[in-house]
Amino acid sequence: MNFKLESTDPKSKARTGTLTTAHGEIKTPIFMPVGTAGTVKGLHQHELKNDVKAQIILGNTYHLYLRPGIETLEKAGGLHKFMNWDMPILTDSGGYQVYSLSGTRKINENGVKFQSHIDGSSHLFTPEYAMDIQRSIGADLIMAFDECTPYPCEYNYARRSMHMTHRWLKRCVDRFDSTTPLYGYDQTLLPIIQGSVYKDLRKESAETIASFDLPANAIGGLSVGEPDEDLYEMTDLVCDYLPKEKPRYLMGVGTPINLLECIALGIDMFDCVLPTRNARHGTIYTQNGIMNVKNLKWKDDFTCLDENGTSYVDSTYSKSYVRHLFTVNEALGKQITSIHNLAFYLWLVGEARTQIEAGTFTDWKNKMVVQLAQKL
Amino acid sequence: MNFKLESTDPKSKARTGTLTTAHGEIKTPIFMPVGTAGTVKGLHQHELKNDVKAQIILGNTYHLYLRPGIETLEKAGGLHKFMNWDMPILTDSGGYQVYSLSGTRKINENGVKFQSHIDGSSHLFTPEYAMDIQRSIGADLIMAFDECTPYPCEYNYARRSMHMTHRWLKRCVDRFDSTTPLYGYDQTLLPIIQGSVYKDLRKESAETIASFDLPANAIGGLSVGEPDEDLYEMTDLVCDYLPKEKPRYLMGVGTPINLLECIALGIDMFDCVLPTRNARHGTIYTQNGIMNVKNLKWKDDFTCLDENGTSYVDSTYSKSYVRHLFTVNEALGKQITSIHNLAFYLWLVGEARTQIEAGTFTDWKNKMVVQLAQKL
Fold first, then answer.
1. Which of A333, B48, B106, B141 could covalently link to B90 via disulfide, CB atoms 3.0 to 4.6 Å apart?
2. Under a CB-based contact definition with an 8 Å cutoff, are residues A265 and A236 in contact?
3. Cα B217 to chain center, whole Å?
C-alpha cells in the first residue's frame, strides 16, 4: 500500500491524497460502503461500481468467518473472487461484532471467547487468529484485533482495555509479519487507537499506535453513542499525534455532517452502516437535508427522487413511486434508497476532495453542515 | 393494437407473430413478468428491459387499486409514468386477486363485494368499474372482469359462473366502448374464456368469447391446481375455436414445460409469478433442469451460476456465492435469482420463436421438456 498526500486545506486540517492498493487507487477522503457478509445489502456489484462509484468496500470478519467460513473463502481464492469484486476491500478484525452481536463473550489477555449469534457455537478470536482469518479473506487493508470499548466506559476499564489493545497490536504485527498473503497480492495491517473519550488515554494511544510505524492508522471506539462533541474532540486530538503522511481511518463514522466535520479534522477514510441501514428504513440524505420517503407529503409528488442526486435512481424514480414501494413493502424501494444514499455519500466525499483541492473546503463545509441538517 | 401472424410450425399449432401496441412491439410467443404493485419484485426497470429483455409486463388491478390507488395513478398520468416503464403493460381485471386474497367476498350478478386484505375496508368491483379502473391505470392491454372458478369446481357452478362471465363481458365491452383512454394512447380489451375443466363448457365459452370479435382472446380459470393433462386438454380444445389471426393469452401459466407445451397448442402470451416467486425461494430454472441454489452441494462450487444462462448474473456470480447469499438471507440472492429466472423465461420463449421460424420447434420442444424436468 502506498499513500500520497496531495493537497491540504488552508483553513482546516482537511487533506486529499491517493491510496494505492493491489486492487486499485482510492482517492481520499473516501467513504467505504459496508458489505457485511460479502454483499452491500441490496446492491449488485456493478451498481456499487458504476452507480454508487464506490472505490473500496468493507467486509466484516466476524460475519464472513461464520458464513461462508474461512474454508470456503480460501477455496474461492479470497473474498474478491468469492463476491466478484475486483476493487479494494478492507476488513475489520471481527472484534466489534464479537462485542455487539454475540450474546456471551469472555475477554481476557489471550483473546475473546464468544458464542455465534447464529447457532450458539463457541469460538475463540485471538490477535493471531484475527490475522490468520484476514489472510484467508484476503482484503487489501486489514485491521488489528482490538477491544472496542462501549460508551459510557469507566476510566479505569478504558485504560486497562487500551493497554491490552496495544499489547494485542504487538501480537497482530508479529503474526502479520510472520505470515504471507495467500493470493499473491499485498495486504496492509492498520492499527487501531482506543481510549474512549478520555484525552490522556487517546493521546497515549495515538502516540503508541504511531510508534508502530505502520503504513496507515485507524481510530476506533468512537461513534458508539458518545455526543458529537466528544467524537470531534477525540478525533481532533488524535490526528495531531498521527503522522501527516499516512492515511487516517475513522471507524464506524457516521452521518454526512460527521464526515464533513471529521474531514476538516484530518480524516481520510470512513465507513458506516448508516446510509444503507437508514435507506432500508426510508431515510435518505440529500444536499438539502434529510428526507423520510415514507411521509404522506410525498404521496402525489411526482418530481424525481432527488433533483441534485448524482445516481440514475434520483432522476429515474419519483418521490411518489418510491413512497409507494415502501408503503407496499416492495424490495425495490430499499434498493433505490440504498443506491441513492451510498451515491450521495460518495458524492459528498468526492465533492469535499474537490473543495479541498480548490482551497474552498472550509466555507463549503460550513454551508453544507447547515443544509444537511434540514428536514425535508 | 395490431397482431400479425408470421409463421406456423408444421408439426404443431405453434406460431409466431408481432403484436404492436402504443408502447412498442411484442414478438410472440412471449412471457410477461408479473409486476404486481407497479414493480417486478426486486428488479429495477432497466434490469427488466436490458437484462431480462422483457417486452411487456403485467400489473395487478386489485393491488394497484388498493395502493397507490386510482387517484394517485391518474395524477401520475397512468402506471407507465408512475413506475417509469415506457414499454407495453397488461393489467388483469382484479378478479383473480379478489377471489384469492380477500378474506370475505360476495359474488352476485352485479359484481363482487370484497374486503381489502390490507385494512379490511369494503369495496365493490363491477364489470363497469373494472373497466374504469383499468382506464385509470392505463395499460395497453386490459382484461375483462370475470369469475375465475377454483379447482375442483362442481359442473353446475362452473356453468352458471361461465354464463355470468359472458354477461359481464358484454357489460365490460359496453363500458369500454363508451369511454376513452385517459392518456392519449389506445387500450385494447381482452375477453376471458372460462368453463373450468369441462369440455362442453370450454367449447361454449370459446365460441361465445370469439363471437365478440375483440382483437385478442384470453383463457382463464386454468393453472389453478388442475393436473397438467387438463391444462393441456382445455388449452388445445379452446384454441381450435379461437380465430387464428388473433393473439391468444393463457393466463397464469406456468412452468417452463407448461410454456413449451402450450406454445405447441397455439398460445402466444403467458404470465406467471412462478419464475419470480420460486427465485425468491432459491429455485432456478435452467436449460438442463431445476436447481435449488440453497443445496449444500453448491457450497464450494465456484463455477458460474448457469453456464448456459443469457443474463450477466449467470456469468458474474458463482453457485457458491449465490448459495451463501441465501444462507445468510441477503437480498442480493433473491435479486440475482429473480433476474436469472425471468431472463431464462424470456430466453425460452424467444428460442421457441426461433425454432418455430426455423420449422424445428416440435423436435426441439420434445427434447427440451425432458431436459427441463431434470433436477440439478
1. B141
2. yes
3. 13
Across the A/B interface, how many CB contacts are shorter than 8 Å?
Answer: 116
Q: Is residue B22 part of a domain?
A: no
Task: Compute the distance between CA of residue B327 and CA of residue B330 in angstroms, rounded to an integer.
Answer: 8
Residue A195 is part of which domain span? Answer: 30-271
**Pure H helices in A240-330:** 256-264, 274-280, 312-316, 319-327
Q: Would you call A68 and B299 a contact, using CB atoms and an 8 Å cutoff?
A: yes
Single out the residue in A237, A271, A305 at which a domain terminates.
A271
Q: What is the ipTM of this complex?
A: 0.97
Q: Does A67 touch chain B (CB under 8 A)?
A: yes
pLDDT band at A222 (very low <50, low <70, confident <90, very high): very high
Contacts of A327 in chain B (CB under 8 A): 67-68
Q: Which chain B residues contact residue A325 at CB under 8 A? A: 38-39
The pLDDT value recorded for residue B100 is 82
Q: In terms of Cα–Cα distance, which of B295, B314, B306, B144 is closest to B215?
A: B144
- Show the 3-state SS of chain B: CEEEEEEECCCCCCEEEEEEECCEEEEECEEECECCCCCCCCCCHHHHHHHHCCCCEEECHHHHHHHHHHHHHHHHCCHHHHHCCCCCEEECCCHHHHHHHCCCEEEECCEEEEECCCCCCEEEECHHHHHHHHHHHCCCEEECCCCCCCCCCCHHHHHHHHHHHHHHHHHHHHHHHCCCCCCCCCCEEECEECCCCCHHHHHHHHHHHHHCCCCCEEECCCCCCCCHHHHHHHHHHHHCCCCCCCCEEECCCCCHHHHHHHHHCCCCEEECCHHHHHHHCCEEEECCEEEECCCHHHCCCCCECCCCCCCHHHHHCEHHHHHHHHHCCCHHHHHHHHHHHHHHHHHHHHHHHHHHHHCCHHHHHHHHHHHHCCEC
Residue in the structure block whose three cell numbers are 471506539: A221
Q: What's the grid cell of residue A143?
A: 485491521
- Looking at residue A164, which CATH number applies to its domain? 3.20.20.105
Q: Region B1-11: what's the mean pLDDT?
A: 97
A77 is in an annotated binding site: no
pLDDT in tens, B264-295: 999 999 999 999 999 999 999 999 999 999 99
Residues B131, B246 within the same domain: yes
Indicate whether B121 and B103 sit together in one domain: yes
Q: How many residues does chain B have?
A: 376
Are A235 and A208 within one domain?
yes
In this prediction the pTM is 0.98
**Residues of A with catalytic function:** 92, 271
